[in-house]
């Protein structure tokens, strides 16, 4: 291990593995270490089921009704991929798709007045939706037509607004849309976690809704994809990419010290040896003194013997409970997957509810989600602290990722990856520059 590297990466979470792969492709000499014996760190997929019971300190073994333990791959941090989103673009560009198979998530739902409704995101769905009255459906359809026709580079499509100045609140007023429609548009289509966006210029929100619609257009069921065998396959795919380009991986490797000289990182000490480096990437757990706690996330992994009610018995779905529907400041998320994704025993479903903690009774905060899942066969509840780096890392050359948030998609994770890349290289992440030819995953996903 006594060697010199351009970049040392600590932790095998998805953020770290993607950056490791990208840096290796760019010709950097990379050493990647993790104190754990498995890939994924906090975002690992746990198998067999017995290991999940042990991780949550549940007594005894899983009942025989849950099938073989090896049939289970349970994500600790559940998320879906937007079909046209940033992570899929990174997968395609780096050709990591050759190691993965995807299925489309079968439905996207939003919670209103105690019930769930399919999220309308096309003009025809808007006209059939039970979320709105007849006149509001027409107004919402006009709004969707405006979004579909909008082109940032063509002022003729702006319909008299300035996307860089006009707030999203003004856009909703322009189309006379009510509170419930604003709720599902902002939180289930644009995927905002709070209502702060309403007072910001509308361009970002318009682009988010276009991303949702374009992702949905791939299949028509939902805009989301999920990898067979669980999310743990993603970091392993990028680890393989790094190895192809000369990256060195060491699991089960304790980190004794991050070696600094004159305020800059110069290496990592493990088992008495020092590997030297010019830059360091790590998750917050490896350098807590350079992070701050920015919140908590509660996640409840629920094993079910049935699909979620009122979803037409589909095998996978996302449900968003907008904050205003349950008098909260943050949304509640549910994502459900099943044996169809090779993550559960036959006839079983995994539904995971998550939200940002706001009170001293976090489990009560996700009760609206848990009520949708009843009856629940087994429940595993975790409360995780969220950390963010206290500085950019440009002086120390230590670049720390953010903890995973409560959202059920990877867009915020990809924003963090691009942010770290910019801090490391001084330039923005350029998808075109990374391109080495594409392998389309969509044929696999549509099965």
TrEMBL record:
Pfam families: GDI. One of its GO terms (molecular function) is GTPase activator activity. This is Rab GDP dissociation inhibitor. GO terms for biological process: protein transport; small GTPase-mediated signal transduction; vesicle-mediated transport. GDP-dissociation inhibitor preventing the GDP to GTP exchange of most Rab proteins. By keeping these small GTPases in their inactive GDP-bound form regulates intracellular membrane trafficking. Negatively regulates protein transport to the cilium and ciliogenesis through the inhibition of RAB8A. Interacts with RHOH. Interacts with the GDP-bound inactive forms of RAB3A, RAB3B, RAB3C, RAB5A, RAB5B, RAB5C, RAB8A, RAB8B, RAB10, RAB12, RAB35, and RAB43; binds RAB3D to a lesser extent. Interacts with DZIP1; this interaction negatively regulates the interaction of GDI2 with GDP-bound RAB8A. One of its GO terms (cellular component) is Golgi apparatus. It is found in: Cytoplasm; Golgi apparatus, trans-Golgi network; Membrane. Belongs to the Rab GDI family. Its main location: cytoplasm. It is a peripheral membrane protein. InterPro entries: FAD/NAD-bd_sf (IPR036188), GDP_dissociation_inhibitor (IPR018203), RabGDI (IPR000806). The keyword Acetylation applies. Keywords: Acetylation, Cytoplasm, Golgi apparatus, GTPase activation, Membrane, Phosphoprotein. It comes from the Eukaryota.
């Amino acid at each position: 291990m006594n060697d010199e590297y351009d970049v040392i990466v600590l932790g095998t979470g998805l953020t770290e593995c993607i950056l490791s792969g990208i840096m290796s492709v760019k010709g950097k000499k990379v050493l990647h270490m993790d104190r754990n014996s498995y890939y994924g760190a906090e975002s690992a997929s746990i198998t067999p089921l017995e290991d999940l019971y042990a991780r949550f300190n549940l007594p005894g073994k899983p009942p025989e009704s849950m099938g073989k333990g090896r049939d289970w791959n349970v994500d600790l941090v559940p998320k879906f991929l937007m079909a046209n989103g940033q992570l899929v673009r990174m997968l395609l560009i780096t050709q990591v798709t050759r190691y993965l198979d995807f299925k489309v998530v079968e439905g996207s739902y939003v919670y209103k007045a105690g019930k769930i409704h399919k999220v309308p995101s096309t003009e025809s769905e808007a006209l059939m939706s039970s979320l709105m009255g007849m006149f509001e459906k027409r107004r919402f359809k006009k709004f969707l037509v405006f979004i579909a026709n909008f082109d940032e580079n063509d002022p003729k499509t702006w319909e008299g607004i300035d996307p860089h100045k006009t707030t999203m609140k003004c856009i909703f007023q322009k189309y006379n849309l009510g509170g419930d429609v604003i709720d599902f548009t902002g939180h289930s289509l644009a995927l905002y976690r709070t209502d702060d966006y309403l007072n910001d210029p509308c361009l970002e929100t318009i682009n988010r809704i276009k991303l949702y619609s374009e992702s949905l257009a791939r299949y028509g069921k939902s805009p989301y994809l999920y990898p067979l065998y669980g999310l743990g396959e993603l970091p392993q795919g990028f680890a393989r990419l790094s190895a192809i380009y000369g990256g060195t991986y060491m699991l089960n490797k304790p980190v004794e010290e991050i070696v600094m000289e004159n305020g800059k990182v110069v290496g990592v000490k493990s088992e008495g040896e020092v590997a030297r480096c010019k830059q360091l990437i790590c998750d917050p757990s490896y350098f807590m003194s350079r992070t701050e706690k920015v919140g908590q996330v509660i996640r409840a992994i629920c094993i079910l013997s049935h699909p979620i009610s009122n979803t037409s018995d589909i095998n996978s779905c996302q449900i968003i409970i907008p904050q205003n529907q349950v008098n909260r400041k943050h949304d509640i998320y549910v994502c459900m997957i099943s044996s169809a994704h090779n993550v559960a025993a036959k006839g079983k479903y995994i539904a995971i509810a998550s939200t940002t903690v706001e009170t001293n009774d976090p489990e009560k905060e996700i009760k609206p989600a848990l009520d949708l899942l009843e009856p629940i066969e087994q429940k595993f509840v975790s409360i995780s602290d969220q950390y963010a780096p206290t500085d950019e890392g440009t002086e120390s050359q230590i670049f720390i990722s953010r903890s995973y948030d409560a959202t059920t998609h990877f867009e915020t994770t990809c924003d963090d990856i691009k942010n770290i890349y910019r801090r490391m290289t001084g330039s923005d992440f350029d998808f075109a520059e990374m391109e080495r030819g594409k392998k389309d995953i969509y044929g696999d996903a549509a099965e």
